[in-house]
TrEMBL record:
Cross-referenced CDD domains: SirA_YedF_YeeD
Superkingdom of source: Bacteria
Residue ranges of every copy of the UPF0033 domain listed in the record: 2-45
The protein's name in its UniProt record: tRNA 2-thiouridine synthesizing protein A
A Pfam family per the record: TusA
């Protein structure tokens, strides 16, 4: 989560960040972080989570 939060300011609006996480809590934490921060949780595939920067 910390790395995702630090990476987002360097990502252009509309771009997607892929997060690779082996922590089982990431499946809940990443979508929750997206809701809190106004970003779009796009998809999850195993240990990969895609987040689109909206603002």
């Amino acid at each position: 989560m910390i790395r995702l939060a630090k990476a987002m300011p360097g990502v252009a609006v509309g771009e997607i960040v892929r997060v690779l996480a082996d922590d089982p809590a990431a499946a809940n934490d990443i979508p929750a972080w997206c809701r809190m921060k106004g970003q779009e949780f796009v998809a999850a595939d195993g240990h990969a989570f895609d987040v689109r920067r909206l603002s």
